[in-house]
Amino acid sequence: xxxxxxxxxxxxxxxxxxxxxxxxxxxxxxxxxxxxxxxxxxxxxxxxxxxxxxxxxxxxxxxxxxxxxxxxxxxxxxxxxxxxxxxxxxxxxxxxxxxxxxxxxxxxxxxxxxxxxxxxxxxxxxxxxxxxxxxxxxxxxxxxxxxxxxxxxxxxxxxxxxxxxxxxxxxxxxxxxxxxxxxxxxxxxxxxxxxxxxxxxxxxxxxxxxxxxxxxxxxxxxxxxxxxxxxxxxxxxxxxxxxxxxxxxxxxxxxxxxxxxxxxxxxxxxxxxxxxxxxxxxxxxx
Length: 286
Known about the structure:
The chain is α/β, with parallel strands linked by helices and 286 residues long. The chain contains 10 helices and 11 strands. It has helices at residues 2-19, 37-48, 52-66, 105-117, 128-133, 135-143, 163-181, 197-205, 228-237, 251-266, and strands spanning 74-76, 82-84, 93-101, 122-126, 147-150, 187-188, 209-210, 215-216, 243-248, 270-271, 277-278. Strands 3, 4, 5, 8, 9 and 10 form a 6-stranded parallel beta sheet that branches. Strands 2-1-11 form a 3-stranded mixed beta sheet, with no helix packed on it. The longest helix is centred in the middle third of the chain and has 19 residues, at 163-181.
């Protein structure tokens, strides 16, 4: 009898010992181990640290703000002079322009080097056929932060062209300049200053500011070839407030430019930034 009781106690002890061992529930997946600390850090960094591209975009936005276009202070009147929109704006200014390019890198750099020296901007009125032959020269003008204008494709007398041909001469330049530099011209000057009502209308259709000039340097005249002093004298002889000065991409004009700009400054004239020239504010411009 005592023997049976001992066996019963031993059996009960074995059952209790078996029940104390932990077991995972049937069908439940084993949990994934936690990610290494380095992996967790990288994941968090992706959410909080701006990417290199984002930093570049922010920098670009800042640069765009710094290079904001100047306020529109002037317009071209019916005599093609530069006049202020308000009485308080300086009237003793000149607008610098160069026609018939782009021709040669050396001349372009020579003109722009001098413009940079005097902190001046100019409009380079270009012909489409020249741009087609040397787009890199047009890009050069744009990269050096000067302003590009439309001078027709072939430099023909537009007044003698048909309406369709005239439109093609003007609008094809708009297209090639925009394709080359990313921005279409804002200014138009007809070759020889020759145009008519349709020329004005086509310019208006393309949001172009139409101008000829009010001060001719005569650098294109054969009698002034290789004579920088003659170019300077011609400009000073015609000088007036708001002078819209016509020059060309020519070697003697390159040679004349530094002295010309110096003399203009000595006379108290400032150089209009073409980007500050906009449409006339009203039909009653002077």
